[in-house]
Amino acid sequence: MMAILQWGTLIICSVVLLLRVPDAIRGRNRMVFGILVIATLCSLLSVPGPYAAIDVALGGWNVTHLILRLLVFAAVLLIGLQVAKGLADARGYRLVAGPPGRWALAASVVAVVAAFSLMDTRGSSAGLLDIADNAGHNAVVAPFYAAAGRTYPGFVSVVLLPALVGTATSHLPRMVRAAAFLTALGAVATAISVPACFAPGAWLLAQQSVNYLAVLGYVLGLCLFWFSRLGTKGGR
């Protein structure tokens, strides 16, 4: 089941990315293309095979996982700016782009790097699933590292949620409402993923499902927003 989630997310992100290539070449909304590039790369780094190959090349200390966390922050920042701007959500844009967003991003980066440095990360392991027993404190620090990696995405998701829900329940065209609903679903899943980091190990599949739902919600939502623009503006 885990492999299905991993490869399914990667395939969907890759397909959506390829659909955006022609517009990106024409110079149309390259920020969305950049978001999809980062999302596809993040999905690739979540698959054990590619992850292990890249991490071994980097020394086998799971630095790849730290890079993945930072890439997620970059994608979420761009998504927050793009969605808030697209929905004319001035309050959301100010919170993401202004001091609250900058402080949330900075604090999350510091927390992620600090928690990572406290763990014994020897031995490449996608999702850090195989290093819990490298040292006694790993099992204690790992949930906080995971939560730190999801706090900034959770912050941006909560900021965007009111505008997304408002759009999803509005009288705008059906495709726009569907796009807002999918993006809101991704936002809710992202927010839930923060406390889910502290769930028991037996809930691993549920935790991972929430994480992949967050990615798919955002990616498919952005894709539908793009298609809705094609339909209403002739792709301009």
Number of H- or I-type helical stretches: 9
Q: What average pLDDT do the residues reach?
A: 89
Structural class category? mainly alpha
Low-confidence spans: 232-236
Multimerization status: single chain
Largest sheet: none
Number of beta-strand segments: 0
Kindly describe this structure.
The structure is a single chain. This protein has 236 residues and is an all-alpha fold. It has nine helices and no strands. It has helices spanning 2-25, 30-45, 48-57, 63-86, 90-97, 99-118, 138-168, 174-196, 204-233. The relative contact order is 0.12.
Key terms for this structure?
236 residues; mainly alpha; globular; disordered C terminus
Topology:
Elements: H1 2-25, H2 30-45, H3 48-57, H4 63-86, H5 90-97, H6 99-118, H7 138-168, H8 174-196, H9 204-233
